[in-house]
Every structure is written in structure tokens, then in C-alpha cells.
Design a protein that fits this description.
By secondary structure, the protein is an alpha+beta fold. It contains 17 helices and 16 strands. Strands 7-6-5-8-9 form a five-stranded mixed beta sheet. β15 and β16 (about 520-525) form a beta hairpin.
């Protein structure tokens, strides 16, 4: 305090109105510098937008926060917005209350903005309900201090809860402190609430967006606070979001993939814990042990399968049978398919890169003669071999930043490549290879993909060359004779119309083509229209220039009659 006062006094600033929850601190402050020294007990003062009781060190929610709420009969949209804007709540303590007013504002806006028109409260029952409940929001106290005990701290953990409905999205964080004397404290840290967008969204998408808010909230505490938080826990009641997060290697829609990338980026930088491993009853998801393949290979005969999905399904049923025998699960779940996928990937890697995986697990460098020496491989948390690459800071999925390393000659990998080829409408070599590189780094990928495309029966049918029928002999009229000349046998055809400009006026003209059937010579004449007279004029000009042909092709209609007459 003294150093702060001395520093500011050099600039002519005198700090006064000191207040604190420590009596020892207040004793060292002059009486004239205290906040309202004439009062026997200090009244609550505003701290971070909320009244603060210094004697009890608590935030208080009282009627002063809602003094600007419009209670008159002429409530307008402008007054409601003024009330929301007047509340300064950076911690989100009263977010459950203000979000209701924001929802009312959104409903009013949907009916058309009328800033100064009186609000028909009968059309908005939520407004009346909130107005009647305001008197009950009195004398609510929230502790300000994060650590309220003098005991030594054993561990800390940040628990972030997320939830969403069709009306709003929310995220809130609590700090749980465990002391050496086996006592625990849970303190509110911060909360955020957002109104659901006007454009309708599905509940899983809203839950996923709420999970993004929760991840950003936890990242904010890590970057802005000096607390040493041991673990970070994320809680969500949406099983769909949990399954999305457990299968990031699957292909998702752009909306889902972008938000999964944000959540996984935050969780990779934090020491996050999976919710289902600690309280599986909340989500009805039983924790299962991840499979650990042996060095002898897969227990399933891969050569009996020609379809990747069937192989995944059979392997998933094997894990389901194991959990059914151990009474861990009663139904086949998505987690069984996820473990089946990871198990098959690990089996294929152990069959081809056993020495490299063993060296990396022991913290040693791989052999200089290894095929993976230029990929900088490492083993992730799922015991999968991945390539580091140079995209660690890119805003993409983990599978694109660090793809899984596979050998293209492995039978499991061949089934995987075949599945990518078939599920993408029998794509070509380069397109299939491009899709694979978003998730995997496959050795000899191009050669294996080319072999897969060649062995694909539908692709072979589509790229098969069509056999042309044998052409018949040419007629005598198209063959040269002893006394033949150019245009001896002539064919006629019209092309057009063509827009032209004649004396400043727009018109259309046609072109009559004369083709020699023996030497393919071409002569053209301009015709005003498609009438018989115009055609005969063109023929006369042609005969005057090229001579009279011996044979004209068969014609019909008025042109045949005109040719016979002439």
C-alpha cells in the first residue's frame, strides 16, 4: 500500500477511500483515507459490478442491481435494452437472470423492432413471470475468496459444466480445492450465458457450441490467472457431444469438425480428464479398458474379410462379449466400435513397426535404417504411432496435424483403403489418396491405391474401352470414278441462324454448306432464310462457281420439287 501511494503521489494523485476485509490492513490506513469512516459498519460497495460486503468478504445480490428494471405500465424495448446494458457482470454471477431478459428481447425483435412502442405484456408471459420473481432475488451471497481455509492445499481442479437448450447456451466453472486435512471447498469462478441463435439449430449442435464456450472459459483461466490448477474437468450432459469428442478421426460435417478442432486444441494444452471415467452414472456410459494388442498380431483372421465395415463390426462384437462377461455393458455401444477401430490400427502398426514402437516407448531414438526416420514418429495417448509434421499450430483436426502412420502392404490397411475408395463413389487414385492423407500417412500409398482401383470391379467396368462396330463399305457415289471431279457428288446442309447487322437493322442469316462426298471439299453460300427460293438461289450460285454436280443427295418436300423443275 505504501509503495503504491508513494508512486502515485509523485504524479499528484492521492489515494483515498481504502477498504478491505483485513482488519490489520485497515489499522495501517489513516482514518481520513478510509471509505466512509463515520459509519460503524461499512456498507456493501460495488466490486466488479456486484455489491461487496467487506466484513464477510462476499458478493451480494440485492435490489440495487434491478433498480433500472422498467416497472411502469409503459414498458418498451428501449427500456429493456437499457436495463440489460446497465448491468456490469463480468463474472457472470447473475447470468441466469439476465439471460431471461435477453431472451425476451430476442422474442420482441422477432416480431419486429418497435423501440418506443408500449410492450403488450400479454404476448410475453415470460416478462410477467420475471417481473413477479424479481423481489425474491434478494440477499443472495456468494463467497469472493477462492481459498477460505488456512490449511495447506493438497490439490486443485477446475470443473467446467456446459449445457444448452433451444433457448440458451451456458458454461460455468467451479474451483474445487482439496486440503491436507481432508476438507474440500468448491468456489464459483465464472459463468457465461448466450441466447440461442435465431436460426434454428439442433440440440446436439447447440450442446457442442456450449462445449466450445466451456473450453474457452477454461483456457481463459489458464492464460489469465496465476493459479496452479492441477486438473481440468469438462462436464456435459450430451452423449452425442461425448461420442463426437471420442471419435475425432471420423469424418464430420464442417460445423461439427471446426468446433471439435477448437475443443481438442484446448484440451491438448490442458491436463484434461474424461468425465465418463469418474462418474459414468451421469451419462450411462460405462468406462471400458482400452485393448492392448499383443506382438503376435490380431486374434481375428483378417484374410477372411473383404469389407472394412464388417471387420470393424465383428471386432466390436468381440469387445462387447468381453464386457458382457465382465458385466460392464449390456448393449452394443458406439464405444465398442471406437475401440475396435483403435485396436485394428494398433495391430497393423505392431505388425510392421514393432521395433520403432518399442524404442519410442522406452524413450530411445529409432534406428537410422528405419523407414520412419524422416517422419519424426511418436506414440500418442492411445498408443498409436503418429507423424509430427509441421502443422502443429494449424487450426485443423489432430488427425491432419499428426496423421497415423500405416504400411500400405498390411492387409488391414488394404481394407481401409478399399473402404475409402468405395465410400467416396469409386473415386480415382489421386482423390482417394488425398482423402486418406487427411487422416493417415501410408507408406507406398500411391502404389497401393492404384492397385485397389485396378481391382475394383465397378471401376473396371466404367473405364473399360467401348468396342466400336465394324464400318460397312462405302457406297459407289462416294468412290471416285474414271471421269470424276470435285463436287461431282455433293451433300447439302444448313447451319445457323447467325445475327447480322444490315443498314443499321438487325437480321438473321443462314449458311448453306455444299460438301463433296469424295474428297471432302466444302463450299458455303449465305441464305436469307430457309425457304425454297432462297435455297435455289444458293444452288444456282454454287453451280455457276463449281459446275453442275452429277448427283445430289436424296431430298424431300418443296426442295425436291424445285430441283426437279430446275
Amino acid at each position: 500500500m505504501n509503495s503504491t501511494k508513494e508512486c502515485l503521489s509523485l504524479g499528484g494523485f492521492n489515494l483515498t477511500k481504502w477498504n478491505s476485509n483485513s482488519d490489520e490492513f485497515l489499522k495501517n490506513v489513516a482514518n481520513e483515507c478510509l471509505l466512509k469512516p463515520d459509519l460503524p459498519s461499512p456498507q456493501p460497495q460495488k466490486v466488479l459490478g456486484l455489491p461487496w460486503n467487506a466484513s464477510r468478504d462476499e458478493y451480494i445480490i440485492d435490489k440495487r442491481l434491478f433498480k433500472r428494471f422498467p416497472n411502469d405500465q409503459f414498458t418498451t424495448q428501449r427500456k429493456l435494452l437499457k436495463f440489460v446494458a446497465s448491468i456490469f457482470d463480468p463474472l457472470g454471477v447473475i447470468a441466469p437472470l439476465t439471460i431471461r431478459v435477453r431472451k425476451i428481447l430476442q422474442a420482441i425483435w422477432n416480431k419486429g423492432p418497435q423501440w418506443d412502442a408500449p410492450l403488450d405484456v400479454q404476448q410475453f408471459p415470460d416478462f410477467l413471470q420475471f417481473k413477479n420473481e424479481l423481489p425474491t432475488y434478494q440477499n443472495i451471497s456468494i463467497p469472493r475468496a477462492l481459498f477460505r481455509r488456512n490449511s495447506k492445499i493438497q490439490s486443485t481442479a477446475l470443473h467446467t459444466f456446459t449445457d444448452a437448450s433451444e433457448y440458451a447456451l451456458s458454461a460455468v466453472s467451479y474451483l474445487r480445492t482439496e486440503y491436507v486435512d481432508k476438507l474440500n471447498d468448491v468456489v464459483f469462478m465464472m459463468g457465461k450465458a448466450r441466447v440461442a441463435p435465431i436460426k434454428r439449430m439442433t440440440i446436439p449442435n447447440l450442446e457442442l457450441q456450449a462445449a466450445v464456450y466451456g473450453a474457452q472459459l477454461a483456457q481463459f483461466f489458464k492464460e489469465q490467472q496465476d493459479l496452479e490448477i492441477g486438473n481440468y474437468f469438462f462436464w456435459s450432459v450430451s452423449t452425442t457431444v461425448l461420442h463426437w469428442l471420442r471419435t475425432p478421426e471420423m469424418r464430420h460435417r464442417i460445423f461439427v469438425a471446426n468446433r471439435l478442432a477448437k475443443i481438442l486444441d484446448v484440451s491438448s494444452s490442458l491436463n484434461c480428464q474424461d468425465l465418463s471415467k469418474h462418474n459414468p452414472l451421469v451419462f450411462s456410459i460405462q468406462p471400458m479398458e482400452a485393448p492392448k494388442p499383443s506382438t503376435e498380431g490380431c486374434v481375428i483372421d483378417i484374410t477372411r474379410f473383404s469389407n472394412w465395415n464388417r471387420l470393424i463390426r465383428v471386432t466390436a462384437y468381440c469387445f462387447f462379449f468381453r464386457d458382457l462377461c465382465k458385466k460392464r455393458s449390456k448393449h452394443l455401444a458406439l464405444s465398442h466400435h471406437t475401440f475396435a477401430y483403435r485396436y485394428l490400427i494398433q495391430v497393423s502398426q505392431i505388425e510392421n513397426f514393432a521395433d520403432e514402437i518399442s524404442a519410442l516407448r522406452k524413450g530411445k531414438e529409432i534406428s537410422a535404417s528405419s523407414r520412419l526416420k524422416y517422419l519424426c514418429p511418436y506414440v500418442d495417448n492411445n498408443d498409436q504411432l503418429r507423424a509430427k509434421g509441421r502443422l502443429s499450430k494449424a487450426m485443423v483436426l489432430e488427425t491432419a496435424r499428426h496423421p497415423i502412420i500405416l504400411d500400405g502392404l498390411n492387409p488391414i490397411v488394404k481394407l481401409l483403403i478399399k473402404n475409402f475408395h468405395l465410400t467416396n463413389t469409386q473415386s480415382g487414385v489421386e482423390q482417394t489418396r488425398c482423402l486418406l492423407m487427411q487422416y493417415y500417412w501410408i507408406l507406398k500409398c500411391r502404389a497401393v491405391v492404384r492397385q485397389t482401383v485396378r481391382q475394383c470391379i465397378p471401376c473396371r467396368r466404367m473405364i473399360q474401352e467401348i468396342q466400336q462396330p465394324q464400318m460397312s463399305d462405302l457406297p459407289c457415289k462416294r468412290l471416285p470414278s474414271e471421269h470424276h471431279f470435285v463436287f461431282a457428288t455433293t451433300g447439302l446442309d444448313f447451319i445457323g441462324p447467325f445475327p447480322v447487322s444490315q443498314c443499321g437493322r438487325h437480321a438473321t442469316r443462314y449458311v448453306l454448306l455444299f460438301t463433296c462426298l469424295m474428297v471432302r471439299a466444302v463450299h458455303s453460300e449465305i441464305a436469307e432464310n430457309l425457304s425454297t427460293d432462297s435455297t435455289m438461289i444458293c444452288i444456282r450460285r454454287f453451280i455457276s462457281r463449281r459446275g453442275k454436280p452429277k448427283n445430289f443427295p436424296p431430298t424431300t418436300g418443296n426442295l425436291l420439287s424445285a430441283l426437279v423443275r430446275n
